[in-house]
Amino acid sequence: MIRNKIIAFLTCFMSCFALFAQSTDEMLKAGGAQLEKGNWQDALDTYTKVLQKDKANPAAYYFRAYANEKLNRYNFARADYEHFLKIAPFNYEGLLGLALLNQKDMHYTEAYDQINNLVEMFPDSVSAYIARAGIEKERNMMEPCIYDWGEVIRLEPANADNYITRAELLIRVGRTEEARRDLDKAVELGVSATSLKYLYKKTKKSKKSKN
Question: What's this model's pTM, rounded to 2 decimal places?
Fold first, then answer.
């Protein structure tokens, strides 16, 4: 969800680093098409060829990292993200990509430190809070996770899915009244109350179990 706009990002990079030779440009576009089709190895090979011609090509490092990650070559992916970030140290997608890679590779301390830094650098980024909440949920850090979903709601108050997600977390920790308020808000925003019936039932069950 967070990194699914491959071609759009490549276009952005091409505008920022527009001094590629035509053959390099064509190879980058070919690699982007291969990524879109899920041809990870072909894309990796294409970006490797780009880097053989241009050892400081940021787009090739970024997308080769992505291909390496999809092939479960985490150490190679990490090295490519790090090379990319030497060229573009404040790039949001690169910083997020490295943090999510470390989470996937179970390097939780590094991932959490990196995502905390990302939130500090981009305090109005919804995806940064969602990514941090994902790490916190995986590590059973429920209160910080709930806080981060609160920040997501602050930034996207009209998105009903955000309230439903937070309600599920609140139910999990027994904060049922708050969960019901979030469910009510989702209904107010257009979600069918019938579709949330199973969650409303959980708030009642949790209430009874506390009494």
Answer: 0.80
